[in-house]
Amino acid sequence: MKVLAHISDLHFGTEVPEIIRELPSSLKEVGPDLLVISGDLTQRARAGQFRAARQFLDSLHFPKLIVPGNHDIPLFNVIRRFFKPLEHYQNIITRDLSPFYMDGKIAVLGLNTARSFTWKNGRISVEQMEHIRKKFCKLPKDTFKILVTHHPLIAPPGQSGKSVVGRAQRMFLLVEGCNPDLALAGHFHMSYSRGSHAVYMAQKRSTLVVQAGTATSNRIREEQNAFNVVRINGKQVELSVRMWNGREFADHRTERFVRDDDGKWEM
Ligand SMILES: [Fe+2]
Ligand SMILES: [Fe+2]
């Protein structure tokens, strides 16, 4: 079994101090094989906010895979936004915008979906789709493939108007056959999950799409701060959402998914 802890939307600059103090011990309790951080590390992409995020991440002694989010690109500084959008992210957090982690059982690919032109909405480029194919299509069949982006591949249930990452449908078509088993994202500060075939109905083999809430920011929307714990065991995935109750992160909801014989993820 492989265990991932998935935190997202840290938004340093708006972080809740008690949560910053408590989250490391909650993560330590989980003891993940890999810690995934799915973007929006800062609130305004300032160097000081990235340095605070870096210091926090350095205190978490697990293998990590990190992608940027739209808030990691400056919004108001137009020069930096268009000419050096991820300068601070790359100088302070990591140069790598398509990180890849692999061990004997899982392969995890992160992609940068944040864009300067459509600041809020993300996009997957055609080159990135090719990159997914390059990384995933050659893997042994039983390697569990995980894609990490900031912007989700599907909208929250009942909110189809919410914009998902641009070209998600095209990506699924292009990588059909070696599409990810699991996709992790954040952005809406809301935890939700389902098989991608519920949205992209023509899909033969579905991706389990899982979003995390904001782990540490006071910019909570419809739900409290939260992070996800994902346990992967072959064709079974257990997702547990840990939610902040004012004192600690407690188990809020656990969902179990199984890939059925048709290749679809079902609860
Ligand atoms: Fe966010
Ligand atoms: Fe975001």
Provide structural commentary.
- The chain is built from 6 helices and 13 strands.
- A hairpin with a 4-residue loop joins strand 11 and strand 12 (249-259).
- The chain has one domain (2-266): Purple Acid Phosphatase, chain A, domain 2 (4-Layer Sandwich), CATH 3.60.21.
- Helices cover 21% and strands 26% of the residues.
- The chain is globular.
- The chain has 267 residues and is of the alpha/beta class.
- One fe (ii) ion binds at residues 9, 11, 40, 69, 71, 187, 189.
- One fe (ii) ion (FE2) is lined by residues 40, 69-71, 150, 187.
Rough outline: globular
The major pleated sheet works out as: 7 strands, mixed
Beta content comes to 25-35%
* Assigned CATH architecture: 4-Layer Sandwich
The CATH topology is given as Purple Acid Phosphatase, chain A, domain 2
Count of the domains? 1
Listing every helix as H and every strand as E from the N terminus to the C terminus, the arrangement reads EHEHEHHEEHEHEEEEEEE
Q: How many individual β-strands?
A: 13
CATH class: Alpha Beta
Taking all residues together, what is the mean pLDDT?
94
- Give the radius of gyration: 17 Å
Small molecules held by this entry: fe (ii) ion
Class from helix and strand fractions: alpha/beta
Low-confidence stretches: none
Number of continuous helical runs: 6
Q: Order of strands across the widest beta sheet? A: 3-2-1-10-11-12-13
Helix content: 10-25%
Distance between the termini: 19 Å
Which superfamily, in CATH terms, is the homologous superfamily? Metallo-dependent phosphatases
